[in-house]
């Protein structure tokens, strides 16, 4: 069931594990506070991260995704990789730069992260990521590239990323917000030293927010790896959300004898341009539920029913922005 991360990329599993909810005590997933049984010390969360990582590896997951701003995610991942004795070819690890974690391990922090896409931040965070993840780090991504940050027009940053690319590290970018498609198409045009700078994109696509789909198909056709995040929309496409508007999703899941999150993830896996879909599981139980997506086959009728859930990008991203840290 393995896939490749782009036309010339490494082999990866169709389902990956993202550590956004595992590396810090607060996140915007619905019900995140319930996932740690009141134990959110660094030590307790490292143990839980290791449990989920071990279950993921045992289940065949071979792509692992972290970021400098995900609290201790890189450190938790590094300590698990070392304790497991895995080699650099056993898993594919991706991380991101551009946000700095500022919550001080508090859920009620005024600001959880600060965005800065400058060249000094890239240099500092690359060194930090490389120090922790060393030989396992095979993909480094701009975290949430937008037109507003100016990162795709910063020649100094682009030159620095070009040097990373030339050293053998795959360089990618992640997207966020209602203009994902426009940013991606700009990134597809970028060349540094006469060669394409990027070879991978990570974007939000789910049954609620489909707008970036055509641009992702273009990236896939250009040989890029395509990683999908937020397949369950930060918990909105799970059993925790009792919104009556999600009735079609629940009905499809009931008919197929599976979970709503598995159906949501299966809808993403069915897209022909997808390399990896990230599970954002914070518990082993959530991971096991997500993994059921690999067994789900959605017919034309199911896809059509799920299409009725689609929101406008503006509506989707406004709702996401309103989700509380918990």
Topology:
Elements (H helix, E strand, L loop, with lengths): L2 E2 L6 E2 L2 E4 L23 H17 L4 E3 L7 H12 L7 E6 L1 E3 L11 E3 L3 H15 L3 E6 L12 H12 L3 E5 L5 H10 L1 E2 L2 E2 L3 E5 L8 H9 L3 E5 L17 H10 L3 H10 L6 E4 L4 H8 L8 H8 L5 H9 L5
Parallel strand pairs: 3-4, 3-14, 4-5, 5-8, 8-9, 9-12, 12-13, 13-14
Antiparallel strand pairs: 1-2, 6-7, 10-11
Helix pairs in contact: 1-2, 5-6, 7-8
List keywords for this structure.
326 residues; alpha/beta; two-stranded antiparallel ribbon; NAD(P)_OxRdtase_dom_sf; eight-stranded parallel β-barrel; 37% helix
Explain what the structure shows.
By secondary structure, the chain is an alpha/beta fold. It has eleven helices and 14 strands. It starts with a strand and ends in a 5-residue tail after the last helix. This is Aldo/keto reductase. It comes from Archangium minus.
Summed up, what is this model?
By secondary structure, this protein is α/β, with parallel strands linked by helices. It has helices at 42-58, 73-84, 119-133, 155-166, 180-189, 213-221, 247-256, 260-269, 284-291, 300-307, 313-321, and strands spanning 3-4, 11-12, 15-18, 63-65, 92-97, 99-101, 113-115, 137-142, 170-174, 191-192, 195-196, 200-204, 225-229, 276-279. Strands 3-4-5-8-9-12-13-14 form an eight-stranded parallel beta barrel, surrounded by six helices. It has a two-stranded antiparallel ribbon with strand order 1-2.
Q: CATH H-level name... which superfamily? A: NADP-dependent oxidoreductase domain
Distance between the termini: 35 Å
Category from helices, strands and their pairing? alpha/beta
The gyration radius over C-alpha positions equals 18 Å
Q: Assign the CATH architecture.
A: Alpha-Beta Barrel
Which stretches are poorly predicted, pLDDT < 50 over at least 5 residues?
A: none
* CATH structural class: Alpha Beta
Annotated CATH topology: TIM Barrel
- Order of helical and strand elements: EEEHEHEEEHEHEHEEEHEHHEHHH
Strand content: 15-25%
- Total domain count: 1
Let me know the average pLDDT: 97
Question: How many beta-strand segments?
Answer: 14
Strand order of the largest sheet: 3-4-5-8-9-12-13-14
Helices, by number, come to 11
Oligomer: single chain
- The portion of residues assigned to helices is 25-40%
Domain NADP-dependent oxidoreductase: 45-309
Protein name: Aldo/keto reductase
InterPro entries: AKR2_Oxidoreductase, NAD(P)_OxRdtase_dom_sf, NADP_OxRdtase_dom
